[in-house]
Amino acid sequence: MAQEIDGSAGELATTSELDRPLFGYSVANVATIYQVGNFNHVSAQQLGTVNFLSVDQVGFSNLLITRQAGEGNSTIASQSGDSNIAALLQAGYENFILLEQVGYAHKADISQYGMRNSASVEQIGLYHNVTINQRGSGLSTAVTQTGVSMTTTINQYD
After folding, report:
1. Beta bridge partner(s), residue 66
2. What angle do CA 94, 66, 52 make, to 5 degrees?
3. Among 139, 98, 92, 140, which Cα is nearest to 122's?
4. InterPro entries in the record, alphabetically (predicted)?
5. pLDDT in tens, 37-80
6. Taking the model in full, what pTM does it have?
7. Does residue 114 carry a pLDDT above 90?
């Protein structure tokens, strides 16, 4: 089907620009970031196909650093409060991280390598620390910490 624009005829595109790879990586990566407060910082890099990132930071001096490589990885994070820090890394296919930190001075370090791994972390209160390392396929972790000054370390390998 032809379309006439400015007196010239041309063909309509049959594919979306999101379907075309750019330098070997898809441009179909999506990021939604919402920050309110002072000194909030997000550093995100997504490589691969159809990676998704949604970050919601409300408070003072929150920091989130994430990197996704592969296909179909998703990250959803919410940090409310003061001085919360999260470092998230996903490499592989269809990995998922759900992180919520509410309160003061929480830290989360989550690394996932492999396929179809998931991590869910909820930290409410003060001074919580969680470290999750998952290497393999189909691994799942859920951590909930409430109160004051709890530390959890989980290493899963298959």
Report:
1. 44, 88
2. 45
3. 98
4. Curlin_rpt
5. 888 888 888 887 788 888 888 888 888 888 888 888 888 899 89
6. 0.75
7. yes
